[in-house]
Each structure stands twice: as structure tokens, then as C-alpha cells.
## 1
Amino acid sequence: METEKKSRLRKFWESISIVLRSPTAAVGLAIVLFWVFVAIFAPLLAPHDPLAQDASAINQGPSPTYPLGTDNLGRDILSRLIYGSRVILILAPVSVLASVIVGTVLGLVGGYFGGIVDEIVMRILDAVMAFPTILLYLIIIAAIGPSPLNVVLAITFVGAPGIARLVRGLTLDIRTRDYIRAAEARGESALYIMFVEILPNARGPLIIDALLRVGYAIFAIGTLGFLGLGLPPPTPDWGGMISEARKYIWTNPLGVLWPALAIASLVVGLNLFADGLREETMRYQ
Amino acid sequence: MLVRDYMTRHPLMADPDMSVVEARRFMGENNLRHLPVVGEGKRLLGLVTRQTLLVDPGRLGSLNVWEIADYLSRLTLKDVMVPADEVITVGPDVPVEEAARTMVEHRVGCLPVVDENIVIGIITEVDLLAHLAEMMAAGVPAVRVTVRMPDVRGELAKLVTAVSAQGWGILALGGAPAPRKPGYWDAVVKIRGIAQKEVVTALSQVEGHEIVDVREA
Amino acid sequence: MATERPGVGSPREVPILRVENLAISYETRYGEVTAVRDVSFEIGRGETLGIVGESGCGKSTVAFGIVNFLGRNGRIVSGRILFQGQDLVGRSERELRRLRGDRIAMVYQDPMQALNPSLRIGDQMAEVLIVHRRMKKDEAEERCIRMLERVYMPDPANVMRRYPHQLSGGQQQRVVIAMALLNDPALLIMDEPSTALDVTVEAAVLDLINDLQEEFDTAIMYISHNLGVIARVSDKVAVMYAGEVVERAAAEEIFLHPSHPYTLGLMRCVPRLGMEKASSYLHPIRGRVPPPNRLPPGCVFEPRCDFARPECAERRPPLKRLTDGHWVRCFFADEVASKGQEALAARWRKEATVHEPQREPTETILTVQDARVYYSVPARRLFSREKPVVKAVDGVSFHVPKQRTLGIVGESGCGKSTLVRAIIGLEKLSGGGMEFMGFDISVPVSKRDLDLIRNIQMVFQNPDATLNPSFTVGFQIARPLRRFRAVPKDRVKDEVIRLLNLMKLDASYYDRLPRQLSGGEKQRVAIARAIAARPELVLCDEPVSALDVSVQAAVLNLLLEVQRELGTTMLFIAHDLSVVRFFCDDIAVMYLGQIVEIGPAEAIYAPPYHPYTEALLSAVPIPDPTAEQRQIRLSGSVPSALNPPSGCRFHTRCPRREWLPDGGRICEVEPPPWQADTEEHRILCHIPLEQLRRMEAVVSEEVRDAG
């Protein structure tokens, strides 16, 4: 047991070192970890309450009390950014996870069964994918109203078809392998073959795709927030902050800059990480 | 017995940008006397021999020691080679004796074999001599007899008939005008597995023929 | 004119290619790894050097080193590559291109690697001439047609207008060879050019290579893992092992007097065409090729060598000269050479105790009656009503007695795999019936009951795809045990380890993942998985054809042991006729979805033959350059199963048709009848048996009974 644990630990370090071998992935991981750290220790890091309004300091530039300045209601931008990372770092992964689950199931079913089942599933997904994403978000949120849960639902709905396509492609390839023949020859059920024999072998590309999608989801949440369809105020939402600050861009241009930078850095970090990871795993083959 | 059967395929060749110094080393190392210079697609650009690589002293006369070294290091094959339009070549489907005649006529020891200006081989005097040796079955033990006969149609047939009448096989047969004896022809026949004496007895009976030389070879 | 005159020897000339002490290394994650060390050889004008060795021995690396395709992470560390007297090492890319120019050509295993799928054959061939030689288009095309004629391509003018995918594999490879020869290269490097081809096509390609070499005087470096192929084409042979040349000699010399333990091992581990199941045991080489980053300190072969002494582990043996032109990297070459003679001779002696054939009739376990598997393929034209039908298996009948092995041979596309898949239930039967132990099995696997499923299991061809890469070996062998409840739950692990041991793998393999195993080990695990639930019938679909020869032997021996111990009945598919002969009691020869000859193994390999069997046998490459084998070559390629020829399906390629009156008109019109040679041996042919009986044996008796 002890040795098993040790070998697990060693394997973990090996995979970490593989990630760190790629400078791209390492930089990306550092940025992401920075934001995760910020989100976890938000209460300790934030100098002010993100909701507290200071009527004496409205739309101010950086100052010793408010390092990044204040917004139109006199709230500390830095604190709002710090708390905003919590919101985004929960919503984005959760919504991606949901779309991965939905997409994987659809992709596996379509890819494994093929024929008419595949045809129906894929045509429906094509129809969804034919809409511009932004328009889809707008329609969905407009229909069910803005709330954290609905944001997750919208992102799941928009993201699932892409993942389903990916998983279907992988499934089409994997199901031709002999080990699938062997399982069929053992008379295994379709469920067993899909989830036990096929899915684990699709995990590599799936994880990388999901990582990239977290980036897109952050973007989407930001966009929804900017359009006023994100989280209801006064939640510290980066997209919402940009939208608010935009109105006062002439008096306090920095107010737009900070949340924009936050979104951009997190998205870039995730993309770098995913790209680096993909490169490394490709080379591994 | 065409050039394509006797030439050396895939000869060593050089690039026009090869330096003269390197070419000299290359030819020395590989014991070459002729080196075709080819461009892309093995197109013949020129030919160098050991003589062409000797630098003309007249050209160096006006240069000092350092300049000479520099000049030599810059000198490449395209500066010294015999250009393609002056190189005597031969086609692959030419009879070997024609190739020999061409070489004698132009006093050259080697002919690049070209097919539409592409070098496909090289034929040298050594290849032709090998061909001659082979034609006359050099090195194969047999009775070699030289018969002088009048240069008249039907004479050679008489010789061949005489040999066949004995039931012997001809290993090699060759002929040329008799040296310093116009109007006569010397034929060389090699017969295997028979004693010299028997050959002399059999051939001396042929009318008008004279055995000028006979030996076990 | 007397003919048997020796020619005048030409003076010693410069070899076309001379490799001296070449070392090549690759930059990897684990640092720099030397893939090839101390390799020297030379190839003269018009000479063929065969390089033989198992995968991972550095054969291809040497080839890539010569043409400088080592990729970004590979480099030549030391040594010289003299091509036509000029060193290729250490030159710039531009210089190399100029030096090599069009004087070195390369042919790969997969012809599609060299062909552009979107260009017509004629266009891509002519381009070579137009670009390199600035030839005019029509002139270039005419030359291409002539070159295609020289590689015996049927209807070359028509081929010029086709796209690569419209040609068969053998034809594609001919096009690639023709293309390589267009520039009249001095050196032709061929990396397993015939490996992906069927035996009959391979035989034709090898003949072609021999012809062309004489005509073009090209030096050929021929890389193959197949000793038989090497014996057929080479003048000289270099045996490579773990990045080193361990033995080098003239072809006859090396096959008659192998003097390195590895060479000897390679020869002893392949079944020869004459070997029978009853008489032989293969001698595998134990262990596996060491990865280049973990080479043994002394002789590279020491860990696997039966002759090894302590000093072998300490010091690397130098390449020493045995006789003129015979070089061996072994301290005890003389001993190996003499022992080798005995061992090779002993190979033919009957080791009768190994396996007793069961000749007495036993009950039939599997009956296949007129089985048909048809697929409909998408219609060629839009709006066309009828869908074309591929008759992959068309009216096949046979039966397998209990505890016997039936071998099914035939070229790719003959329907052998489809047939087996139908038996296991992965393919739907379109007609006919199949019965297994008295149960009807003409239904797909999903409709069979668990016990029936348990009793038919399968071993697949590709070791890399046969195991699920995500699960440990233990889990995968345990799965059938759990599923069929073959043993109580608490004893599953013990049973898995017992099975591993049976496969000569120790318990440490339990927790390994497939990617940590070699090909042979994967295949053993796959066999363990197939036999875990004690099936009555195991179907083997080319279980060893993807493995290295030394490993093949071990796996075949294991399968034999399993059969002996468990009394399993087997169906064994293979394209290698020597392996089938060695492994099977009965053999069925398939052509285009039909069985054309069936009978006991000995009867198949001796006359009377079906003309197709005869051609197949004459195409098998025999690893002995002195072996006498009749040459019967089939013309053309296997016709499409979409539109099989009328009458006898083999009539389009049959070399024996002219034996029949009227040039075999009847073959085109009437399906041939079954003719019974003996009760068990039947042949599907129009030619009367008496005439078939008069055929000579394909491989001369002398070779078969040597020793």
C-alpha cells in the first residue's frame, strides 16, 4: 500500500514535470494558479468589502486606499476583482463540466451506434451550432432570465455540441480497435463498451478541449455580464464591471482596463496551458 | 555489343562548383582519370581530366604568393573543365567499335555516354580493351592459330568449314587486314580441347591459307 | 560460339556506397540516445545488400541517415557515408541535395507515402523528368510509359491516366519503383517495400527487383525483417541487432554458415515451409531487443544469447573477420558456426515426442454450411436503385473436429477474416447456417446466450490495438473471468496470475499498462484473456503476423501448449503458409470468398494442388538461397468482390487453364465442381484430378527432407 502511494506520488510529479517542460504550459499554469490562489484567499487578500460603497470616492483613479481606484458607486475595484475571480472560477468550470457530460453522452451514443441514431443526434447538434454563439446566449438568457444557474445552462447548451462532435470523432476511431471487438465478442453491453472501453481512451483530447473551453466560458460569462445578462448586480462580475465602467470611460478610463485585463489574463493563461499540454502529449506519442 | 553493354554505369561525377583542389584529391583517392561534370538531372556540363586540373602557369605569373593561394582556392571545375560542346561523347546504342574509332580519331581516352545530354555512363579505353580481351577469349586455355589468307570473299568460310569438319568448336574468332601485306587478311581462331599438332595438320590442308602463328594460349 | 567463358574481371572499383563506422543518435526526453553504432558496409555497382533485423534494430535509421531524413532530433555523431566517393556527412543541406541529387532514390513500405493522392499517375511521374531534366511533356510521358512497361505494369497507358487510389497496393508499389528508376539512380534504398503486399504480389515485386538490378546496374540497399525475402534478393547480407551490424557476409555464406548467435537464432525461430505440426518445436530467442537507452555494457546480444560467457557481459566484442568477406561481432563465432550447423540440421529431424497428432476421428465441434456474408455498399450513382453487393463470403462449408486446428489461408480480401467474424457473431450471416456444439450460431453475438459466448473467443492480429490502453493487464484478463463467472470472485486475482504464468509472464505484469509491454507480451496477454474463461473454440486472426520473428516463435509455441493442455479447438487465420503448415492439422485455402481447396495439412502442401494453392506455395519466400522452388507467378491482382468473375473465380489469373481443352473456356462459364482426392482432401477445380496429381511439388523434396 505504502509503495503504491509512493508510485502514485512519483507519477504525479512526473506528469507535473512533463507540464513544466513546456514553457508555454508552465506560464499558462502559473497564471491560472495565481487566479485560483486569489479566489481561494479572497477574504484575506481583498483590502475592502467588494460591496461597500464609499460615497466620498466615486470614479477615482488609483490611490493608496484604493490601489486600482473605485467605480461609479465608490466600491474598491481591486476588491471587486478579487471577489469576482471566485464567481468566474466557479461558474466557468461548472458550466464546462456540465457541457462535457452532456456532450460526451451524445457523442458516445452517436459515434458508437452510428446509423440513424448518429444521423439524428448530429443533425440536431448541427442546427444548434449553426446559430452564432452570442445570439444563442442572448436568446437563452432572455428566455429564462439572468441568474448564475441560467448562465451555466446557457453555456452548457452552447458548448455541448462541440464536445459531442469531438467525442463522436474519437469514438468513431476507437470503436474500430480490436479491444472493442474483443469486448463485443464477450457479449458486453453497449453501455459498458461506451463508458468503460471507449470513454477512458478519449480522455486526453477531451481534457485539453475542456481546458480550452473553460477559457471560452470565462469569455462568455464576461460577455454576458457586459451585455447585462450575466449575474444580477451587485455581484462582483468582471463582465458587469466592464459594462458599468464603460459608461464612465471618459472620467475613469482605468475602471474598464482592470477587469478587462483580468479576463484577458485568465483566458490567455488557460489557453497557454491547454496548448502547451496538447503539444507535450502529442510529442509523447 | 553496344556501348550500353560495356560502359560503366553510374560513373563518379562532379559538380561544377567543386573546387579544383578538391577535385584533384577526389580523382586521386578514387583513381580516376576522367571526371564528367554534371548539373541538375545529370546533364553533361563538361569534362575534366588530370591535365585540365594542372593550372596554367601563365595565369599565375603576375600574382604574388598570397594571391596565388587565394586564386587556387577560388578556382572551381567550371573554370577549368572542357565545356560540354567540346567534349566528344557517344550514345548508348552505338556499336563498341564505333566508340573505339571515335576515341582513336579524337585521341581521347574516354567518352561520356549520353542519352539526350544526360550522362548515363562512361566508356574508357580500358573498357574497350576489356571487350577486346573478352572477344578473343584471353586467359582461356586453347590453341590459338593465326591464318593468313587472300582478302577474297569465301576464304574465311573455308577456314571455318575446315574447323567444323573436324567437329571442333570455335572459342573465338577475329580478323584484320594483314600488316604490311596488302591484299591479305589475317584471321585468328581459338579452338579448345585439342592438341596444337592436330590443329596444324588440319588447317595446313586448306588451299591458299598459310599458318603464320600457332600457340597454346 | 562457346558460351561458358569467364568474363574479364574489371579492375577493383569504387563502391557506390560505403558506410564507415556510422553512429547516429536521437535527442529524446531522456537525453541523447544512440540508435546506431559502428555500422560499416559497402555496396558495389549492381549489388544488393540486404539488411535484416527485428524492429528497433536501427535498420531504417541507417537508411534515413544516408538520405539525411533524420528529422529535427536526429544527427550523425560520427563516421563517414561515402556515396560515389564523396562524403555525405557534415555537408550543408544544399550541398547534399546537389551531391545526392537524383542519384539516390528511396522506396518505402507504404507506396502512398511517395504518391500524391490528388495527382494522376502520369502527371506525377512525368513531373520528375520535366522538373529535373527539363524534358518536354509528351516526351516525358512516353518515357514514363516505357518505364511502366519495364516494371511489368499491365496496360501502362491507361495507368498513366489513373489516380493512385485506383490502383492496387502491388501496382502502386510498381509505380513507385518505376518513379524511383526514372532518374536512373546509382543507389536505390528500399525499406520493406514488399512487406505490406500479399505473398503472390510480393513474389512478383521481388522478381522485378532482381530483373531491374541487372538491367540498371543499380546498387540496392534492401531492408527487411523477413529472412526469406532477404535470401531471395540479396547478394550480401548485413544482420543488424540493437543498432549494430553483428554479422556481414555474402548471402549464401550467411545462410549456410551463420556465425553470430543472433543470426542463428533468427533462422531457427522461423518455421520453414516443410515443417509439420507433428514434428517440430520452434526455437524462439528469449527476451527482447533492448531499447537504445538501456543497452547492456558488453555484447549487445549477451542477455539473450545461449552461448554467452562471463566475458560477453564485460567487453564489447569487435567485428572480426571469419573468412574473406564474412565478418562477425562475437567472441565465439567459430563455436557458434559449428554448433549452428548441428542446430540447423537438427531442425529437420523429427522430434516426435513434442506433439502427437490426433488422427482418430473425434466429434465435430463446429459445422459451417454454405455460409454467406454479403454487404451492400453505397450506390455509385445518386438515384440508382440497386445497391451493389460485396459477397465477402460466398457459400463456404466445412467442419472442424474437436481439439483440432483448422488453418485458413488466402490473400487479403479473400474473406477469411469476415468468415471468422461471422462465426464469433460480430458479422451477420446473409445465408447458410453454422452450428457449434449442437447450437445454432447463425445469430449475432447479442442474441447468443452467455454460455455460448463464453465458449467462442478470439485472438486478434494487431498487438497494439488488442488491449485497451487505459486498463491494467490484470483488469483486462480478469474481465472475462468476472463476466462469465468462471471462478469465484475472491479467486479472480489468483486465476489471472495463473494465466499470466501459463503465458510465461510473471505476476509483476498484473499491474502494468499495455504501453509498458512489448508487442509479443501484449499478444500473450491477449491470448490469456481469450482463454481465461476456458472456451472450447478459439479463433486466431493472424495472431503473430504483426510480431517480430523471434517473438512469433514464442507466441506460436505458447498457443500450441495451450491447445495441448486445454484441448482447445482452434481456427487459425494466416497469410504465411509456413506458419500455417507448422501450426495446423487441416487447412482451407480461400480465394475471393470461397474455399478452393481443403484437407489435411500434408495433403495441401503436396500435389495434387489447386492451381491457386500451387501459386501461393511458389510465392513463399524461403530463407535459404539454395532452396529450389518452382516459380509460378500470378498475373494481375485479386478481382473485386463486388463483381467476381463468372464461372471459376480464379479463371482470370489461373496459370493452369491452358491444360483444359479450348484454353479453359469452361472455367469462364461454369462454376467448378468439388473433386475429392481423398476423403478429406478436396479441390474445387475443372482440371481432372489425374492431371492435377501430375504436378511437381513446388518446393523440391531435397530441401524439405534435408538434414
Note: Chain B touches chain C through 30 residues (CB under 8 Å).
## 2
Amino acid sequence: MTMTPSDRAERELKNLEAVAGNGLLHRRAFLRGGAALAGAMTGYTLVPSAFGQQLADDAWSLVPGVPVPDYGTRSRFENNVVRTLTNPKGEPRTQHARTPHHLLNGTFTPNGLHFVISHAGDPDIDPDKHRLVIHGLVKQPLVFTLDALARYPMVSRMAFVECGGNSAPLFSLEPIQASVQALHGLVSCAEWTGVPLSTLLDEAGIDPKAKWIVAEGGDPPHLSRSVPLAKAMDDAMIALYQNGERIMPGNGYPMRLLLPGWEGNMNTKFLRRIQVTDQPGMTFYEARTYAPVLPGGKAYRFYFIQEVKSFITHPSPGLALKGPGFYEISGLAYSGDGRIAKVMVSADGGKSWAQAALQQPVLNKAFTRFRVPWRWDGGPAVLQSRAWDEAGYEQPTRAQLVAARGETTRVPAVTGFPSQHYNAITSWSIERGGEVKHVYA
Amino acid sequence: MYTRSLLGFAVTLTLALSARVAFAQTPNLGKPISPADIAAWDINVLPDGSGLPPGSGTPADGARIYAAKCSACHGPEGKGGVNGRLVGGDPIKTIEAEKTIANFWPFATTLFDYIRRAMPWPKPRSLTNEEVYALTAYILSLNKLIGENDTMNAQTLPKVRMPNRDGFIVRFPDRTP
């Protein structure tokens, strides 16, 4: 009997040394396995049996295609890849649009799928009339047009932006069954291009008494947040471009404050004014909303940093496994404290761990894609990922996070925000039929 | 890990310094603007009261304005409607407890600042400073944080002591000036 390439791949897979329990393989198993192994993969599942179907030319290959549009969009077969909306009619309350991480891959978020939180709808800003004012504790108050800013030396960088309330459903005392989009969809990553804020603050001339800036948007709530001057002078940017094109209306057109690694709400959209001050504004969003309550009733203030976090996107709830065999486990890791140093993945609920491969380049305060090859034997498995950053911070277990931050007393709505800044481990249980469920483990 | 951290910091510092040198000649394309020309946008009110405008208002004035412009969303007498209530609030005992002005907000100045910049939701920036003072006084009075005849102005508002003023822990003291 002759061995087909996929038979050989199957045998090689079986021979590969498992590096952790429940079938986790070495992160470079593919590279070592070579072409035969790679050829054995068809998408998500290993199909060892013969194809058994004669190929024929498809209809679309036999007629001219449609004209190229002036602004491209994805195939109509991808129309299910959309954000989920909490308030599609724009009723007088906040709107949330969450990124479908389970339907994307790579590390940057397409502009139309970047998460958005809008407190009163997106303003329709005329860029020619928009102004940015810098005033307060400065030698010379200045006003900038977009045209003026466009002439400044610019910088580009990848950066994730994450809502302080992302992953809040995991504060629930019981795991809420929902997709990774519903649980972790309020974080996205893009390449941002713009003018370093330090350049403009230097031009205005900072008074020695200055300690903070208060940034304000030109949106209807005139959303305002206070930022320590040290962060404003470090890596803050007046961002004008998002993934190469002008910032999307939902993400702050025509300009936003970008504070890499810091709480999303502080990255003021529609930025129109920066007041340099000697004290924080104690604005609505910092005094009330983004001040998470701790067990015992006190609350954290100025929870600036989005701390090290990871979650598995493939597989995840809604992406059922189609039978035993080979799969790639992959997900996203990021830290507001720097680069991701290491991601470990477990298939047995944290009893044993395999080191994941990190997609290069690993960038500062940006998404890092991690991947681990896995052979599912069809039995129960609990998948987890855990990340470490270059500052030495370790993503907490859920038990560690709950011990410090508490959990709810009742199951909240999946769209609710019982607290903020949840960065602990997420666990996916693989059921016998291949269905993926959210569990605490 | 610690060593790598320090090394990373040194590299960042060098890059930052060279970047500052490279940009030493910056375009200077901002136009000087006078405080008078900024005035309409200069709406931040800080906890020490700086930024509070001239004017004043009483709870009685505020009650009339509230009924006309606020009760549709926040309910009669601030008891809540399609949007959050503005009066009352149980002591905070759980992480998901409802945060209210009375049980959570640390500074009364935030009330003036937020009403003036964001309310009413369908028509922000439509209230006069007098109306904002009056609404602030009314809401503080409903919560029994000031007397029902107390006037709120630039002197009195920053002195209002909020019950949860000391209920906070700074999360990152080393990064908070």
C-alpha cells in the first residue's frame, strides 16, 4: 500500500513530541515537519482521506469579472465579518461596536472593524474648520489647523487601543457564554501616524508649574480626560492617520490623542483642545466612570495602563472544531507596559504549558499574534493562554485577579460593565462534539 | 528580566533624546491665540474651582430648569428615567454597585463641568452658566449635600465636601503627579 503525502504527514504528527498535556506540540513543529506536514493542513482540520472529486472550471473563471471600485471592500462572502452594535438606532445612551477577533487574523485591525465607543454618536467634523488649541500653563497659547499639522515631522507606530471596560463580562461570578468578540471586542490595533505631542507642547512652551494636560474632544459631550505631563511628553501623538488613511469618524476624525498602552477613553477623539494644568480635571470619566470599585468599597483612581493580557481567538466560542486532528491555536497578546516577552498556552486547564511562537515583529504596546500547533484527540480540553511582558509583568490567573479585584454578586448583562481593567486568563473548554465554551478554570 | 528592562529603558532614552535633537528646529506653524478668542472653548473646571465662571444659582432656580430640560431623561426630581438617577444611592458594597453622585463622586466641581460640557444630551452647550450653577445647586440639594437655600457660585461650589471624597486609591502612584 502506497503512502500519500497526507498519510506521511499524519504519521509525522503522531511522532512529534508533545511538549505539554492534551496534545500541545512544539511551537516550531511545522517548521521541523516540513512541506509534507504543511500540505496536510486544509484550513483548520487535517483531512487525511482522498479528495474524491474531479476538478472543473468554475463559473467565475469563465466570464469577465466586475469593474474595480474606487474604494475597495471585501468579498461579499465575508459580509458576516462585522462589528456587533449595542445601540444601532443611536438612542440617548452610549454606543459600542466590538471587533470580531474570531473572524480576523494577523495583528492589525481593519479600519471598518476597529472598535468604537461613542457617547453621543460620531460628530460630522469638517476638517477645514477643525482647530486644535494648546493653552493653560504655557508661554504662548497656540491654535493649529489640520493643514498646519500636516506639515510637521510625523511618526508612525503600531499601537493597540483598549477600552478600560474591555473583558468586563469576565468579572461575572459565573462564566458568560459569548464569543470572543462579545467578551474581548473592545480592543483593536492599528498603525497610527501623526505629530508627536511633545513637539507642539515644546513650541507652546511649558510652564515649570505644569503637571498635567486636560485633553478635550469636539464631540457633543466634549469628552475630556486628564493625562500626566510626563506621558504627554513621552510617546503621546496627535494621530491623523489610521492604517494609512485618515482616521475613521468613529475613531476620532480628523485627529485624536494617542496614548500608547493607556486606557482607551483617555485617547481623546476629535481632539480640539489641550489645557496644560497643575492638577487633574477630575472629569466625569476619570472621577466616576473609569474608577473601578474594589472589594470593600474603595475605588481605584487613575488606572492609566492597560496591563499585560492575552486571549485565544482560534478556536473560540462559535468556531467549533470539526473533528479530532490537527489545529493551530492562535490568539492575541499585548501590554501597555511594553513588548510581549512570552506567551504560554495550556490545553489542560493550566496543568501543563507549551511556549507559543510569537509572530514577528513583536512591537511595543501593539498586538502580538501567538500560535501553537495542537493535536486534538477528541476528548475534553481546556485551552488557556498566559502572557508576560518585557517589564516583567505576568498576566494573572482569574483566581489571582478576583482575589485582588473581586467578582460580581449576580451574573451581569454581557454588554454590561460591572468593573474595568480585567486582564486575567480566559479559558475555553472544548466539548466532545468540538463546541467551544467559555469556562472558569 | 530586570536587566533587560533597564537596557530597554536606556535605548528608549537615547532614541528619545536624539529625536528631540532632530526636531529642535520645529515648524512653529501654530498661530498665537488670545484668551479672549479661546473663551468659548475654555470650559474646564478643576477641583480647586479654577475655571468656574462668574454667576450663581439656587436649588429653586435649578428645579424649574430641571423640569423643563432634564426630567425627560433623568426622571422627576432626579429619580431616574431612561437614563441614570441623580439622587440617592446605597452605600457601595459590591464591585458592580451603582455609582451615584451621593455615594461615589469625589468632587462637586465635576458636576458643573460635566453638565456644562455634555448636557442636555440632545443639546449640549445650550445652558447658560447661571443655569448650570442652578442645576448643580438643585442636584446637590436633592442629595442633601447642600441646604435647599444655598447658592452655588465660584466660591461656594469648590467648598462642597462630597461624602466619598477619600474613597479612592491611586492605581499607579509613580506615574501620577
Note: Chain A touches chain B through 82 residues (CB under 8 Å).
